[in-house]
């Protein structure tokens, strides 16, 4: 069953429930009001029985006159009513107008002993009546009755009108529900059609329609953002595959060439053979490093680490301490406390890559200076620096300058730094120092924190 059909049925069911409640309430209220009006009329007639001299009662029933006559037909003083007289023994003595009214034990008791007047509803061959039984002073009782036929006719007419009105209301509710469902689900149908088209064709550039300002519009916008993210991810994967294929081709080609040399020339002199083996080892190491960097680039972006608030200065201390154990360079750190909402492991990875890059292109034992203020990290080395043509590309994946090709590395370290900066809403930049060396800057967003500025000098071990 479609969503439109379910909504139409729901509206019709709601309308039917409302009609049923209104009809039942209206019927009960009308019946109660009509019966109350009849009771009031009968109660007004009963006041005539309280005539002080008893003349009206004597003329009506003859209870106090042994020569009373039997009346038939309507009574002018009590229009529309039937009258039945009961003696003090609880027996019917006279029924004015045709047909007798049934007597209950309560009515007989009231005639014998007196008491408060009571209303009741009785059924006879002539129809249903509303009866008021009134005790007579001195014994006996009089029953005043009025037919409920008019009430029944009025209620029947009300039920018929309620059925007709209810039918049209239910139909109108179903039609309104269908039209509302069409209006609501039309953009959902567009989104569904678009999703099916994308699933069938794989074309993530398919435009997303259903632009509105309500929840459905927000869903369309979210769907469009998701498709854009998928499209961007696909482009990145394709570019990564192309770049990785290009970078892997060089070491693999060299490996194949060296292996072919060894297989073709088993009797190489020891010096040549040693050189070939060293080339194999170098290419294998480069291939291993490239594979590890590729895994880091792909997996760390989607790892399960949750972002939390951390102090950037403390992370820098840890990164510098780790780098100092791996090289003989002299690291100096000046950092201010700075609160950062980020994944700690990713930030440590980015800072570590900056320090590793500085150590790679600096003379052994030289100084590497790290400064941080307001979330802006600068790492300065005292190496050869960048050539002007290299600066725009140093953060690009797999990019390696001419001077770096002879050094180990994959060209992915600074690309990971740029990736982390993007995740944290920051940026990266590269420049040359005026007195030589390179300066790499990583800008992260967060909240500054007042505190003592730390100035640490760490010598490489």
From TrEMBL:
<keyword id="KW-0902">Two-component regulatory system</keyword>
<dbReference type="GO" id="GO:0000155">
    <property type="term" value="F:phosphorelay sensor kinase activity"/>
</dbReference>
<dbReference type="Pfam" id="PF02518">
    <property type="entry name" value="HATPase_c"/>
</dbReference>
<dbReference type="InterPro" id="IPR050428">
    <property type="entry name" value="TCS_sensor_his_kinase"/>
</dbReference>
<dbReference type="InterPro" id="IPR036890">
    <property type="entry name" value="HATPase_C_sf"/>
</dbReference>
<dbReference type="InterPro" id="IPR003660">
    <property type="entry name" value="HAMP_dom"/>
</dbReference>
<dbReference type="InterPro" id="IPR003594">
    <property type="entry name" value="HATPase_dom"/>
</dbReference>
<feature type="transmembrane region" description="Helical">
    <location>
        <begin position="163"/>
        <end position="184"/>
    </location>
</feature>
<keyword id="KW-0597">Phosphoprotein</keyword>
<dbReference type="InterPro" id="IPR005467">
    <property type="entry name" value="His_kinase_dom"/>
</dbReference>
<keyword id="KW-0808">Transferase</keyword>
<dbReference type="GO" id="GO:0005886">
    <property type="term" value="C:plasma membrane"/>
</dbReference>
<dbReference type="InterPro" id="IPR036097">
    <property type="entry name" value="HisK_dim/P_sf"/>
</dbReference>
<keyword id="KW-0418">Kinase</keyword>
<protein>
    <recommendedName>
        <fullName>histidine kinase</fullName>
        <ecNumber>2.7.13.3</ecNumber>
    </recommendedName>
</protein>
<dbReference type="Pfam" id="PF00672">
    <property type="entry name" value="HAMP"/>
</dbReference>
<dbReference type="InterPro" id="IPR003661">
    <property type="entry name" value="HisK_dim/P_dom"/>
</dbReference>
<feature type="domain" description="Histidine kinase">
    <location>
        <begin position="243"/>
        <end position="448"/>
    </location>
</feature>
<keyword id="KW-0812">Transmembrane</keyword>
<feature type="domain" description="HAMP">
    <location>
        <begin position="182"/>
        <end position="235"/>
    </location>
</feature>
<dbReference type="InterPro" id="IPR004358">
    <property type="entry name" value="Sig_transdc_His_kin-like_C"/>
</dbReference>
<dbReference type="Pfam" id="PF00512">
    <property type="entry name" value="HisKA"/>
</dbReference>
<keyword id="KW-1133">Transmembrane helix</keyword>
<keyword id="KW-0472">Membrane</keyword>
